[in-house]
Amino acid sequence: MTHPAMRILSTIALAALALVLLVAACGGGTSTSPAAVAAGEKVYQQTCATCHGRDAKGLPNLGRSLQANEFVADHRDGELVAFLMEGRRATDPLNTTGIDMPPRGGNPMLTQADMEHVVAFLRTLQ
Ligand code: HEC
Question: In angstroms, what is the span from residue 101 Cα to ligand 1's centroid?
Fold first, then answer.
């Protein structure tokens, strides 16, 4: 027979473990942390601003405005990251301007994590 005190102790231990896991799960989503946003802004200014403008309001005959952008608002973080990894070529039937949106903003050195940070930054412009 297990002593009742042991049962209470193991219940407390399980509850503590559940709490730790919950906190880890919440804190693990670094995509919207201030550090992610700052890293994303840096990538944005170095790579994306060339076409979308330093203020993200778009540039004539280059990228369109990413401020209050419907496409950004309508897609989840993961979908936006996938979009940025692929880009949207001028030949893509979904392209609306006839201008290339290059994969990773045209910088093949950028990683998926960089794109996740950029998405965190784009969310702050909506
Ligand atoms: C060489 C120019 C260029 C660069 C660099 C560039 N873009 Fe674009 N981007 C475009 C163009 C052009 C479009 C519009 C494509 C179309 O006509 O559908 C676009 C579209 C987008 C869209 C979709 C907007 C919409 O309303 O459909 C997002 C989001 C976006 N770009 C984000 C980025 C990010 C983030 C970066 C940097 C990693 C970046 N772009 C770099 C040219 C560029």
Answer: 5
